[in-house]
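User: Here's a protein and a ligand (FE2/S2 (inorganic) cluster). What would the complex look like?
Assistant: Let me lay out the input and then the predicted complex.
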Amino acid sequence: MSTGASGSEREALRRVPCGPAWMLSEGAMVRVPIIPGFWIEDEELGRVQARSAVVARQGGRIYAYANVCRHIPLTLDLGDGDVSSADRQVLLCHHHGARYRIEDGKCLYGPCDGASLFPLAVDERDGELTLLVPG
Ligand code: FES
């Protein structure tokens, strides 16, 4: 299963192996280091380097985003890899409390209400997860 980018877009992307898909259980939300990092161009935030991704499984589907908050370009976690809310219903930025919907990365509440996380494409083949990131 693949999500998040068209065929021609995928050719320009770097493949980052993430390990066996079974390790990402239903409801899991994890930070994945991306080394080297990748750059995002955004009208509001400018040019931002991401050094990790947020990967979540919900309803059997896998979703991935750059680990960059839309309020201020900081990671959602505080360095401990915790990117979920206490009730595990949304992705949470632990700096100022922005709450992002897992399915589309949209901020539902917080200082960047209405903005969305930067989506990343995901490949799941032969039981292995691969992220596709710029550059
Ligand atoms: S940096 Fe994420 S809510 Fe402020």
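Summary: Strands lie at 2-3, 13-20, 29-42, 46-58, 61-66, 91-92, 99-100, 107-109, 119-125, 128-134.
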